[in-house]
What does this fold into?
Amino acid sequence: MSELAKIEGALTAKPTRAQIVRLEDAMRQLPQMDLPPEHFFAEGLYARVLNIPAGTLLTGKVHRREHVNILAAGEITVWTEDGMRRIAAPHIMVSRPGTKRVGYAHTDTTWITVHATKCTDPQAAEDELVEPDMCAIEHVELSALPEAV
It folds into this structure.
């Protein structure tokens, strides 16, 4: 079974939050990758840049407010409550509050989120912008995902 087929078997074309959480729970059982973000602040804005290696499966944090997502480089399949989309850079979209994403990077990918905030510290910005009960972000090598997920 191909790596992408493992994910497609785990989620429907329009996954529910429960399906995404089940996948995330399975991912937590695997060795995690360290993908430290870069942080940028400008007057009233916070940008978070994540460089994602090809073959990485990840889930995102749940944000309290609408924000902008920029796919600056690469190609990624992204699942949301609205369905599955394969997108290629350059691509810009707006995330609604409460959205939970799952992504699979087909190529090395650069994903940027841009948030309105007066915070100038990454932790303070996260405390303000992210839902604490749903803030897990996990990154795993897709080849490590069990067939049964």
Q: What stands out?
A: Confidence is low (pLDDT under 50) at residues 134-149.
